[in-house]
TrEMBL record:
It is found in: Nucleus. Residues 6-292 form the Carbohydrate kinase PfkB domain. This is Adenosine kinase. Its EC number is 2.7.1.20. SUPFAM superfamilies: Ribokinase-like. It comes from Larinioides sclopetarius. Gene3D superfamilies: 3.40.1190.20. GO terms for biological process: AMP salvage; purine nucleobase metabolic process; purine ribonucleoside salvage. Its main location: nucleus.
């Protein structure tokens, strides 16, 4: 498929990876470099070099695990209807080989110990659940914030067991309406109503009783749903003209990036959500998860 796309279509290359996208966007929203760090596994190849240079250029502190033989993971994205519809075909390769032992390196132990907030995507459930649990337990023990993204409907279904193993440690859960519906079906919630689903997720068992779970569900052009301590709040999306939409791929990643950029500065949830909406709105106007030179986020 990759070969056919390159030979027959105009192809744009952008640095990606769902979690790394989020870190790049979050870093873009703040002034100080290396406020956000990323760990993942890449190959010792050209794509790996590009990925690392783009992340560092964005100011993200990266600590990759390098695979000796497998190439860096790639993802083909086909876009139709002026960016309204997208289809992704991933070749995980080296990205699928991250091991828990990488966390034990002194440089990574330092990053983990100094960090106050952690974010994982559920894509990582397919790679190294032991790594997730090690960080989740550390966050719980030290009263740090542990965030997770549902990431895709199939993860709520096929990787239900490791997801629910991590769920009691989740302080902030992100997802979109399709992921929420899949999660609800798998958990037997008996509802397709996004607000009800978010409420039920917030009430699932939780390890750290000092932090009430926050659940945030995006719905494209429809309002973002926030649930905290039984209260439901909705935030309208920013209206974007159809002709301005280039690529909706990366919108969810950008939303979380914008949110986290404000959250680490202890801004109110209102500000965090609005920053997330702003970042997502900017990203869909460009190809891939790319951004304007400087943010222009104002309340």
């Amino acid at each position: 498929m990759y070969k056919e796309m390159v030979e027959h279509y105009q192809v744009d290359y952008t640095a990606g990876g769902a979690c790394q996208n989020t870190m790049r966007v979050a870093q873009w929203m703040v002034k100080d470099k290396n406020m956000f760090a990323f760990m993942g596994c890449i190959g010792k190849d050209k794509f790996g070099e590009i990925l690392e240079s783009k992340a560092k250029e964005a100011g993200v502190l990266v600590s990759y695990q390098y695979h000796e033989t497998l190439p860096t993971g790639t993802c083909a994205v086909a876009i139709t209807d002026q960016g309204a519809n997208r289809s992704l075909c991933a070749y995980l390769s080296a990205a699928n080989c991250f091991s828990r032992e990488h966390l034990d390196l002194l440089v990574n132990q330092t990053i983990i110990n100094e960090a106050q907030h952690f974010y994982i995507t559920s894509f990582f459930l397919t790679v190294s659940p032991p790594s997730i649990m090690q960080v989740a337990e550390h966050a719980c023990e030290k009263n740090k914030t542990f965030c997770m993204n549902l990431s895709a409907p199939f993860l709520c279904q096929i990787f239900k067991e490791p997801m629910m193993q991590a769920m009691p440690y989740v302080d902030i859960l992100f997802g979109n309406e399709q992921e929420a519906a899949a999660f609800s079906q798998e958990q037997g919630f008996g509802t397709e109503d996004v607000e009800e689903i978010a409420l039920k997720i917030s009430e699932l068992p939780k390890k750290n009783k000092l932090k009430p779970r926050i659940v945030i569900i995006t719905q494209g052009e429809n309002p973002v749903v926030l649930v905290k301590e039984g209260k439901i709040t909705k935030y309208p999306a920013i209206s974007v003209k159809p002709e301005e939409i280039v690529d909706t791929n990366g919108a969810g990643d950008a939303f979380v990036g914008g949110f986290l950029a404000q959250f680490v500065h202890e801004k109110s949830l209102d500000v965090c959500i609005k920053a997330g909406i702003y970042a997502a709105t900017e990203v869909i106007k460009k190809s891939g998860c790319t951004l304007p030179e400087k943010p222009n986020f104002v309340l």
